Amino acid sequence: MKRVITLAVSAMMLMTASAQENSYIVKTRSAKQKAAAAQAAAGKQAATQEEETATDFISQNFKYYSLCDWKEGMKFMVMPEKYDLIVKTFCDAAEGKEVSSMSLRHKIMVYQGRNESADGHSRMNFRCQDNGKMYYFEIPSGTFDDYCYGKLGVPTLAYLGDVDIAREKLMGKKLLTKGSIYRIDTEIDGDGYREIKIPKDREVKVTAIGVGSRSFPVKIIVEDEIGEEFYQTFALSKTNSGMRDDEFIMDSLKHTFAGSFQLMDVIMSVNKNYASYIGKVIHNQYSTKMMTKGDGKDREVTVPKMVSFRVDNAQAQLGSPFIMLTLTETESRRVYYKEISFTAPEELPGRDITMDQYFGYVFAMGEGIQRETSQAARAAIQQGRVIIGMSEDEVTLAMGEEPNQIVQGGNGKYDWIYYRSKGKSLFVHFGRDGRVESYNTGATASAKKKKGTGKKLSQAQKAKQNWKSGKGTPLDE
User: Where are the alpha helices (DSSP H) in 246-374?
Assistant: First the structure.
């Protein structure tokens, strides 16, 4: 039994090491961290028993190669899916026997041209770069030209030519998110992932490019301003993708580059009109809605008036009167996003623009009210969390807004209440010194309907009885 466990652990560590050594296999940081923990645990167990339009950019740099046009030397990687384990794709040229796709997983195949077999079948020949052996794929039926015309391609093979070009053209580039659903790796030695939602027009930087799958060969990993990584896979030239163009109209649109990203270079000429704002300090004259990350999640908050920000970016959006401002709060360094128009609503008849979306109304140049924050509180503020010892100003900055309700208690103590989702509220309990003593969430389905302070919030008083000083729950719970 111990021998079986040891062999299993060794195999897992070998697969993980193999994935990390192959430069075409790239993973988001989430999977790397998970793999590091798993590998450490595995090691312990073994001891005892990871302006051009977007369309123009793609068409000019990523050429589609029909099967008929493949040239010797083109490189592919074997990326088998579940059904590929049932129907074997390649045969060993020396032995003429079928080979398991899993045994060739992540191996690089170099195209060596085609020939006819003794029985008249067309064969496509490959040399495995990893082991030096020759393999072939035999066209199942019909002529080679007929097979070519149908865009059927060679199963399991992801075209590495697109990956290499993408690395040359896109590594380190700044992009804007144009989709809404992206992915994070959950396995270092597998293809597992989970989907996350990312707001549109978020500025990101390309940190890694590798191989995805046969259908979507190019995997592009990006990082946002707080260091969170996510990715999408693409069919850039559609070479050997096995998919028709019309298959990208609906669900697969996100797997086209234009469906998920836009090059910052595309709209730099539009942005030059707003370049003078970059680096300037502004403040909001009125409370206004903005997007920010709170406790690791994107959420909309109502920022109280007179908060100071540095303008980090003013991103134009083609065909739209709105500019996406990236703002960093000057004291805590928390990042906010605000879609704004520099043109007054009355000057844009027919456009649905409110005063809260007009720069001249919402913002003014210069600093607002100075709010003191401690070093300990700043990290929590950037993450949208409340911690013990925060002042009123620090709680306001952490939550991104003023409380929905204030409840006066006895002995100079009081509560701030923030209405959250799913019928809950965040209760922040202040001591007589104006510092946070404790906080917690509680069901407040009826509390939201009540106004004022004191006795009207009996439910809040009941919730306080269950508090444990110094402990709390996530704000977005």
Answer: 257-260, 268-271, 359-362
pLDDT value, residue 1: 45
Using the CB atoms, write b or e for 235-260: b if 16+ within 10 Å.
bbbbbbbbbeeebbeeebebbbbbeb
Q: Give the helix ranges, DSSP H, for 49-143.
A: 54-61
∠ CA 228-234-235, nearest 5°, is 175
What's the token pair of residue 155? Answer: 């199963």
CA pair distance 215, 151, nearest whole angstrom: 12
Task: Kindly report which listed range (55-69, 330-344, 350-364, 462-476) carries the lowest average pLDDT score.
Answer: 462-476
CA distances, 1 to each of 6, 38, 43, 48, 320 (Å) = 9, 21, 17, 12, 66
Q: Ranked by mean pLDDT, which of 271-275, 312-316, 390-394 comes out on top?
A: 390-394
Per-residue pLDDT of 326-353, as tens digits, reads 999 888 788 899 999 888 887 777 677 8
Query: Tokens 């690395």, residue?
Result: 167
Q: Where are the beta strands (DSSP E) in 304-411?
A: 308-316, 322-329, 335-341, 363-365, 405-408
Task: Name residues whose C-beta falls within 8 Å of residue 205's C-beta, 6 or more positions apart in sequence.
Answer: 172, 173, 174, 175, 222, 223
- Please name the amino acid found at residue 113: G
Q: Report the pLDDT averaged over residues 39-61.
A: 55
Q: Which residue has the tokens 């605000």?
A: 338
Which residue, 151, 351, 172, is CA-closest to 240? Answer: 151
Angstrom CA distances, 113 to 64, 65, 163, stand at 18, 14, 21
Yes or no: say if 221 and 28 are a contact pair by the CB < 8 Å rule.
yes
137's tokens: 């794929």
Pairing between β-strand 98-99 and β-strand 108-116 as defined by DSSP bridges = unpaired
Buried b / exposed e along 320-337 (16+ C-beta atoms within 10 A): ebbbbbbbbbbbbebbbb
The dihedral over CA atoms of 433, 437, 440, 442, expressed in degrees to the nearest 10, equals: -50
| Cβ-based burial of 17 (10 A; exposed 0-12, middle 13-18, buried ≥19) | middle
227, 232, 237, 240 alpha-carbon torsion, rounded to 10°: 130
DSSP assigned state of 424: E
291 bridge partner residues: 300, 337
3-state secondary structure 274-306: HHHHCCCEEEECCCEEEEEEECCEEEEEEECCC
SS3 content of the chain, % helix, strand, coil (to 5): 30, 30, 40
Q: What is the mean pLDDT of residues 196-219?
A: 92
Report which secondary-structure segment, H or E, holds 420.
Answer: none
**CB distance 337 to 199 below 8 Å:** yes
